[in-house]
C-alpha cells in the first residue's frame, strides 16, 4: 500500500514528517514501544544499517580485516549548552538523533565501503546526505565496532563527536534546508531530552519510543561513557521508561 500523505508533528522544538500510515497504525507516536525483536535486511542500504543487536565488540582493525562483510557507520553528535527549559530546567547537553523513514529513532549514518573509502570518510559522506553538512569525523571519534550475530556479514561502527553549540545548531538548520534525504529517508532531527519531568516526562518518555536496532543501547552507553548523565540517572530513566511501556496510561 502506497501512502503519499504526510503530517508535521512538533517534538523537542523541531518539526518532522510522519507518514500518515504509521500514525494510524500506531495511533500516537510518543507511545510507540521499543521492540527487542530485530531483523537483518539485505536489500537497500538504508534498510540494512543499525538493524542488528550486537553482543560483542571487536577492534576496528580486526573488523576491517574480515572479508565479505558489510560495514555500517553511525555517529552521535553532541554539544554542551547553558540553555534552560522554561527558564528553570537545565538542558546541559544537546544530543542529536533522527526520526527515520520507518518511524523509528536512530543515529545518522549508513553503509560504507572500506575498499573505496575510509570508514570516517564514508560516514561524513552519509552525513552530507542526511544532515546537509559533511561533518568531519576522525578516527579518534570512534567508540566501538560490533559484529552482529543475527546479520553474519554486517559490522556496525559507532562514533561520538563533540561539537560547539553553534556548530550543532547549524547542523540542525542544514538538515532541514540542505539535506537531500530530508523528508525521504530522514523525517527530521530530534534532540534527546536529558532531563526528568513529572510523570516520566523527558528522558524516560523518550526512551519508551521505538528505536532501530541497537541505537537505544548505543545512546545509553554513550551518555554514560562521556559523562553526560550519571549511571544512577540512566538507571532511573530506564526504570521509568519500562513503567511507561508497561502502563502507557501513566503519561
Notes on the protein architecture:
It contains 8 helices and 12 strands. It is an alpha+beta fold and 251 residues long. Strands 3, 4, 7, 8, 9, 10, 11 and 12 form an 8-stranded mixed sheet that branches. Strands 1-2 form a two-stranded antiparallel ribbon. A hairpin with a 2-residue loop joins strand 1 and strand 2.
List keywords for this structure.
single chain, 251 residues, alpha+beta, 8-stranded mixed beta sheet, two-stranded antiparallel ribbon, 12 strands, globular
Q: Total number of β-strand segments?
A: 12
The major beta sheet can be summarized as:
8 strands, mixed
Number of helices: 8
- Tell me the strand percentage band: 25-35%
Tell me, rounded to a whole number, the average pLDDT: 81
Integer-rounded radius of gyration = 18 Å
Report the span from N to C terminus: 32 Å
Q: What quaternary form is this?
A: single chain
Summarize the structure.
The protein is α+β, with helices and mostly antiparallel strands and 251 residues long. The chain contains eight helices and twelve strands.
Task: Present the secondary structure layout.
Blueprint: E1 6-11, E2 14-19, H1 20-26, H2 45-48, E3 56-58, H3 60-65, E4 70-80, E5 84-85, E6 89-90, E7 93-100, E8 105-106, E9 109-112, H4 119-131, E10 142-147, E11 154-163, H5 165-177, E12 186-191, H6 203-207, H7 215-225, H8 231-246
Parallel strand pairs: 4-11
Antiparallel strand pairs: 1-2, 3-10, 4-7, 4-9, 5-6, 7-8, 7-12, 10-11
Amino acid at each position: 500500500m502506497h501512502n503519499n500523505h504526510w503530517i508535521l508533528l512538533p517534538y523537542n522544538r523541531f518539526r518532522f514528517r510522519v507518514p500518515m500510515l504509521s500514525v494510524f497504525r500506531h495511533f500516537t507516536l510518543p507511545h510507540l514501544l521499543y521492540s527487542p525483536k530485530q531483523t537483518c535486511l539485505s536489500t537497500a542500504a538504508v534498510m540494512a544499517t543499525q538493524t542488528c543487536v550486537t553482543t560483542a565488540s571487536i577492534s576496528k582493525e580486526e573488523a576491517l580485516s574480515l572479508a565479505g562483510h558489510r560495514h555500517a557507520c553511525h555517529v552521535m553528535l553532541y554539544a554542551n549548552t547553558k540553555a534552560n527549559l522554561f527558564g528553570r530546567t537545565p538542558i546541559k547537553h544537546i544530543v542529536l538523533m533522527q526520526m527515520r523513514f520507518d518511524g523509528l529513532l536512530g543515529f545518522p549514518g549508513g553503509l560504507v565501503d572500506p575498499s573505496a573509502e575510509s570508514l570516517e570518510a564514508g560516514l561524513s559522506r552519509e552525513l552530507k546526505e542526511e544532515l546537509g553538512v559533511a561533518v568531519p569525523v576522525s578516527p579518534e571519534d570512534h567508540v566501538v565496532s560490533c559484529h552482529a550475530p543475527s546479520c553474519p556479514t554486517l559490522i556496525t561502527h559507532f562514533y561520538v563527536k563533540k561539537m560547539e553549540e553553534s556548530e550543532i545548531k547549524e547542523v540542525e538548520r542544514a538538515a532541514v534546508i540542505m539535506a537531500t534525504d530530508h523528508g525521504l529517508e530522514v523525517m527530521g532531527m530530534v534532540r534527546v531530552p536529558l532531563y526528568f519531568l513529572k510523570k516520566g516526562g523527558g528522558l524516560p518518555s523518550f526512551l519508551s519510543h521505538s528505536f532501530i536496532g541497537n541505537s537505544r543501547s548505543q545512546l545509553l552507553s554513550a551518555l554514560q561513557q562521556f559523562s553526560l548523565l550519571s549511571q544512577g540517572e540512566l538507571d532511573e530513566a530506564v526504570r521509568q521508561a519500562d513503567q511507561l511501556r508497561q502502563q502507557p496510561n501513566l503519561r
